Amino acid sequence: MTETDLPTVAVVGPGAIGTTVAVALHEGGAAPFVAGRTARTELRLDVGGSVVVAPVPVRTDPDDAPGAVDLVVLAVKATQNPDAAPWLARLCRPGTVVCVLQNGVEQRQAVAPLAPGATVVPAVVWFPAERLPDATVRLLAEPRLTLPDAPGSDVVVRALQGSRCAVGTTSDFASAAWRKLLQNAAAGLMALTGRRSGVFGRDDVGALTLAYLRECLAVARAEGADLGEGEPQRVLDAFRGAPPERGTSILADREAGRPLEWDVRNGVVRRLGRAHGIPTPISDVLVPLLAAASDGPG
Ligand SMILES: NC(=O)C1=CN([C@@H]2O[C@H](COP(=O)(O)OP(=O)(O)OC[C@H]3O[C@@H](n4cnc5c(N)ncnc54)[C@H](OP(=O)(O)O)[C@@H]3O)[C@@H](O)[C@H]2O)C=CC1
Ligand SMILES: CC(C)(CO)C(=O)C(=O)O
Question: Which residues are in the Ketopantoate reductase C-terminal domain (predicted)?
Fold first, then answer.
């Protein structure tokens, strides 16, 4: 690959986020190989009511992988990383960039052991998207990613250049990742209550959200994030300003009976709080409840 060539790309996990990025890559000419769990003949992206159809098949057998590629975009749920390992083994060689499109602040630690020799690049995924029953993905905002100013990010920027998915880089990735984590932590309340953004309109849930987010903020700062005192209120205001029917991916998982990403989105605050000696009394209640909900109804 030269500086001007498009990298060879694979997308692993063509769900809400993976389909969006795979369609963007396809439109930009990058011809992604798409690896999934459920076979499909095409990818469908609903953008404001108009459906973009990309004739990109979803392959489900790792033996069909084309061999090592320059860039793997990993967009399975964090709970599904171990199951995606056979794909990573076939698609990566030393030097492959694995860009992890997952919520959380621990993408490097989670994925590096599954892709030895690869360069793991975490990403903050700022846009919401949802899967419809026929596997069409509905885009709910302009696709936008933030990556660290770090080796490997240039390959992602090049692959998506000029596409519908904007990619920026920052020298303060910790702050960006924790800013997003605060949103995700609060969204856990939707999974617990079985309600959408409208639940944040309640005064009692608003007060709980603010108290919880102040706890998350203390841990974020201890981890080096440069976030202001106003961040909890900003996150709450954003949920209150969203359409009341707007959900979150962890609620979609709860509704579908799938395992929840409770550890990377909520448990992490409790774990890192303990490591820093920061009390996390609200996490101490919420995290076991989310973990229990993740285990299923029985
Ligand atoms: N959805 C959203 O709005 C946002 C999500 N995120 C984060 O992005 C990440 C991805 O979330 P999202 O796109 O919602 O998740 P989805 O559940 O929509 O997509 C996951 C995809 O991975 C596939 N998959 C599961 N196991 C494997 C496997 N072993 N090999 C290959 N593919 C597999 C699933 O297959 P199958 O179709 O069979 O289930 C599905 O297509 C998560 O970390 C989430 O927190 C971040 C910002 C917003
Ligand atoms: C859209 C958003 C920000 C809501 O928490 C998200 O990251 C998700 O759904 O996983």
Answer: 172-292
pLDDT of residue 183: 98
Query: Last residue of some domain: 143, 170, 197?
Result: 170
Q: Judge whether residue 4 has pLDDT over 90.
A: no
ipTM rounded to 2 decimals: 0.98
Centre of ligand 2 from the C-alpha of residue 139, in Å: 12
Residue 124 lies in domain: 9-170
User: Average pLDDT for residues 273-292, to the nearest whole number?
Assistant: 98
Return the residue whose CA atom lies nearest to atom 23 of ligand 1. Answer: 13
Tokens 């603010």, residue located: 210
CB 279 within 8 A of CB 216: no
Say how many Å lie between the CA of residue 18 and the centre of ligand 1: 7
Told to judge if 180 belongs to the known catalytic residues of this protein, a careful annotator would answer: yes
247-258: pLDDT as tens digits: 999 999 999 999
Q: Is 179 a domain residue?
A: yes
Of 59, 180, 254, 270, the active-site residue reads 180
Angle at 210 between CA 208 and CA 215, to 5 degrees: 95
Facing residues of 181 across strands? none
State the total domains in the chain: 2
